[in-house]
Amino acid sequence: MSSCSGGCAKTGCAKTGCANTGVDRRGLLRTAGAFAATLLAPGVTLYAFGARDAQARPAGEPASANVRWGMLIDLNKCKPGCNACVTACNEENGLKSSGRPEIDAQWIRKVTLRNAATGVIQEAPVMCQHCENPPCVDVCPTGASFKRADGIVLVDKHICIGCRYCMMACPFKARSFVHEEHDDQKVNAPRGKGTVEGCTLCVDRIDAGRKPACVEACAREGGAMIFGDLNDPESEISKKLRQLPTTKLRADLAVAPAVTYANL
User: Fold this and answer.
1) If you count Cβ atoms within 10 Å of the first and of the last residue's Cβ in the chain, which end, N or C, has fewer?
2) Average pLDDT score over residue span 137-161
3) CB burial class (10 A; 0-12, 13-18, 19+) of residue 155?
4) Mean pLDDT of the region 121-138
């Protein structure tokens, strides 16, 4: 069995303990007021920014359960030391270093895995696994954590009270708490002090018919990440899942992650 030295994706640890649990609603609303199309409830469409293509979901059309978005990560193609996916995520969502790593957001991170039996060392990207049965949604007292019909797990910042129960419940250490004000936010990724956040699979890109930023960046560095519709047997990801030996993190928990790892 592999053990993780870069933040355990297999044990359910979550870093809590910041005393700052207040929610700055003004700061959040100042940002949210700049655009009226943020995701406010399950199935409501995020307005897309930029060009659409033939696969884009029309504005106003709710997410459909006919689609189940997922990701396959082939670790044989994940280059050691490559952080293209992390850099792309940070740039896409406006995540910048504060100089204090203990409070910086990490929507995707690279972890080092070592097979105790063989000594083989691998690196793996870990992010929100967008579970079919997400523990974060189960424990949220306000309904701020929710899952769209197409399987994407999100946080409604307007009703998140910053309790961080979701962070404790997540087996993948995939959520971060916003400790400070952020004035230079991206329109597609609203952030509010005192709320919880995590990987959205670049939901605005998906609604515009595009792929997540990490997947596009990875395609230029070896193509370890494949994104697509798990419900479509003819999609690239479905075909690859039938061809490769695959593993889901913490399969024993029966949360059914939408992110699958090949050659782990």
Assistant:
1) N
2) 97
3) buried
4) 97
